[in-house]
Amino acid sequence: MGTQHDKQHTKLQGKPQEKPDRKRKGPNLFQLVMVALVVAAVTKELQKDKEDRTWHGTVAGFVPYEFRVPTAERFRERVWDPEGEHLLSPHVFGVGWTLNLGRVVELVKRRVENAREDAAPA
Q1: Which pLDDT does position 4 carry in this prediction?
Q2: Are strands 97-99 and 88-90 parallel, antiparallel or unpaired?
Q3: What is the average pLDDT score of the chain?
Q4: Most-buried pick from 43, 62, 65, 102 (CB within 10 A)?
């Protein structure tokens, strides 16, 4: 066991300090909400007649879900759509949204072009 003086001396020497154990023992609120949304979406589909199940839609009024097998076309639509008007689109598979990287790249390109035009001598 070290004294208070030893601990301060160690701190001054730059040696790593003992960190309090901050690991959580269970799921956090975000994880619980996500699990609840997945359960709600699956339940919503299972309550439909078998021929009416689409395995995609919204749950909780606005959260999109997509449980169909992912396709390259859907991936391009949702993850790489530079001309799309939204930065977020429904996941290719799962519950929630994904970032439309194509749109982000397009917006960055426009900003860079505008900055170059503004910086160009007249």
Answers
A1: 60
A2: antiparallel
A3: 88
A4: 65
CA–CA gap between residue 117 and residue 111 (Å, rounded): 10
Q: Where residue 109 falls among pLDDT bands split at 50, 70, 90?
A: very high
Looking at residue 48, what is its pLDDT? 98
C-beta of residue 86 within 8 angstroms of C-beta of residue 97 = no
Q: Residue 106 belongs to what H/E stretch?
A: helix 101-119
Question: Measured between alpha carbons, how far is 8 from 83 in angstroms, rounded to an integer?
Answer: 58
Rounded Cα distance between 42 and 118, Å, is 52
Number of other CB atoms surrounding residue 66 within 10 Å: 21
In 3D, which of 72, 71, 67, 69 has the Cα closest to residue 94? 67
pTM score, whole prediction: 0.70
Question: Would you say 79 and 100 are in contact if contact means Cβ atoms under 8 Å apart?
Answer: yes
Return the structure tokens found at 10. Answer: 């160690």
